Write the structure tokens for this entry.
Amino acid sequence: MRVLVVDDEPTAQKVMQLFLARSGYTPIIHSDGSKVLELAQSEDPPPIIVLDWMLPGADGLTICRALRTAKLKSRPYIFMLSSKTNRDDVAAALDAGADDYVTKPFHINELQARLRVAKRTIEYQQELLHQIADNEALHQRNSLLGELISKQQPASVPAAAPVVPPASPVPAPAVVVVPDAAPAPKPPKTDVLFTTHEIRYLLSATLMELRLVLERVTLRADVIEPKLVNYGAWSAIMLHTKGYWMDLLLLAKGEASGKLFAQSLGRVSTSMGENEVFLAELARVVGLGFTRTLNTRQASAVQPLLSRTLNFSGRTGLPRLPLDTKVYDLVIEGQEVQLLVMLSDDAAIRVSPSSLREGDILAESYPPPSRTEVPIFKEGVTMTPRFIEKLVDQMEVEPADWTLAIYRPSPLAKFFQRGVRTLSALD
């Protein structure tokens, strides 16, 4: 986690830089406060700011007040660092908007503990912001679905979307990769792959739910031209009985997305945001078609994460994709769309709770059904810092070798879930 330190004393700068680096943080050092507000308003602001009271130009109190009155995307955690020890000075700093006050010279263990408090607070804030964004996306999605349902004629929507007849099943046990051990043999991929005919069949059925008609499907062999792409809509499928993870990515031009929106909703979209929400719903529906077919093959497929859309306009290049990515050229209602299908066979592992990472997805409920009818965490739950902390606490009542079956989302899944703004983040 990055920490911005604003102090005009060279010795203090060196001490803080060494201290933060050794404590596991990334220090950003500035000598005056003229750039603090600009950094806080940037696309990637530092989450923790340490301000010295006495600074050239605006002092620490003035900068602190400016930060608290500015309309920032995320609220930084502010430390006031000063040699002033008077209680009135401490009160003035806190009233100005500081979250904590540390006197010079500081005690190493105490400041490390206070930084841990700041880190927990920032992580909780980020979790809440992520939930708010998801709730807003779901609200927009539900509004769109309500409009779609109102447009549908009862006779035009089948009671249950047809699925591809199941392929010859290949019996295989559930497989996970155990860290620090030789990987178990994977089941053959033939039972989770699709022919072009199967892709055409399942897409035709599922696109009917959005009042869209699939006209053509062609498997490509050449390189994708990213410069032709405006939008990328992503969805993922977890095949937790097979040990696989599948990413689905729809690529479309802005004009195509607008025309598909109009065909599906019967009206013109009012904003780019509506187009993005619609494409995210399109990715979810396409993923649903894959999920239904995989479940007929006893693959126990689920969609664990909310589908999302990114606007690629103004960016160069797509994220690096696996070499065995299947690329299909689709024509839907006369509009060209590309579908990319990526299958990963190394996403399922077993780890101890202390090795869990934010974003990991539980492949099994805890405690298991054999122990309780009401689990603390259900299968498919995405780990947050607070969830990880709760599971780590459970280690006291579990065997020493206790592990959890989880899925590590692919780089593409992390890219869309975190809303990364630079496509180079995957390289």
Observations:
- DSSP finds ten helices and 15 strands in the chain.
- The domain at 2-126 is CATH 3.40.50.2300 (Rossmann fold).
- Confidence is low (pLDDT under 50) at residues 154-185, 420-427.
- The chain has three domains: 2-126, 154-346, 348-407.
